[in-house]
């Protein structure tokens, strides 16, 4: 059993979000639909929950949080939720939104795995705020899909 730190989990999430931005950029570049291009560009630019949550903390608090141990390493993020999933140039906004909703679920699962462990309240607060941000995203994406705006 390897003990990891909050910093290790946050690095996993950050790497996931970086690859996700690249994925949305690729969709925006390859699509033939102006609506999907606009949607993918928007989603790529707004994948900043983790950095926003950490920016709200002071540097000393961030360093302290990063050093907290987590007893059990969370299961790895499911990159298959978007890696290797090629969308055709004529993909619909609904197809892009379905993938985005699935991806948010992956991050929520990661954060909840940390919350399920015996961790300090400061760590719980951080990961609860990340879950809330991703859940808020999921709700917004579902609303956009339901409106069939694009």
Low-confidence segments, ≥5 residues, pLDDT <50?
none
Output the radius of gyration: 16 Å
Spell the H/E element sequence.
EHHHHEHH
CATH fold type: Ferritin
Helical/strand content category: mainly alpha
CATH top level is Mainly Alpha
Strand count: 2
Shape: elongated
Beta-strand proportion: under 5%
Number of individual domains:
1
CATH architecture: Up-down Bundle
Report the average pLDDT across residues: 84
Number of helices: 6
Helix content: 55-70%
Strand count, sense and barrel status of the largest sheet are:
2 strands, antiparallel
Note the gap between the termini.
Answer: 47 Å
Short description:
Helix content is 69%, strand content 3%. The protein has 150 residues and is mainly alpha-helical. It is elongated.
Structure characteristics:
2 strands, 150 residues, mainly alpha, 3% strand, 6 helices, Ferritin, 69% helix
Provide structural commentary.
The protein starts with a strand and ends with a helix. α3 runs antiparallel to α6. The mean pLDDT is 84. It is elongated, with a radius of gyration of 16 Å. It has six helices and two strands. It is mainly alpha-helical. It has a single domain (4-147), classed as Ferritin, core subunit, four-helix bundle (Ferritin, Up-down Bundle), CATH 1.20.1260. The protein has a two-stranded antiparallel ribbon with strand order 1-2. It has helices spanning 6-30, 34-45, 49-55, 59-67, 93-115, 121-147; strands spanning 4-5, 69-70.
């Amino acid at each position: 059993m390897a003990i990891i730190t909050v910093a290790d989990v946050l690095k996993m999430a950050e790497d996931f979000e970086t690859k996700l931005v690249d994925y949305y950029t690729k969709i925006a570049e390859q699509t033939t639909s102006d609506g999907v291009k606009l949607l993918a560009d928007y989603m790529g630019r707004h994948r900043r929950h983790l950095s926003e949550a950490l920016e709200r903390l002071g540097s000393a608090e961030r360093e302290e949080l990063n050093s907290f141990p987590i007893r059990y390493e969370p299961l790895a993020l499911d990159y298959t939720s978007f890696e290797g999933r090629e969308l055709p140039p004529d993909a619909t906004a609904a197809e892009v939104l379905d993938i985005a909703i699935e991806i948010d679920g992956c991050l929520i699962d990661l954060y909840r795995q940390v919350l399920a462990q015996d961790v300090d309240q400061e760590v719980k607060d951080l990961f609860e705020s990340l879950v809330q941000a991703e859940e808020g995203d999921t709700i917004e994406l579902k609303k956009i899909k339901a409106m069939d705006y694009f």
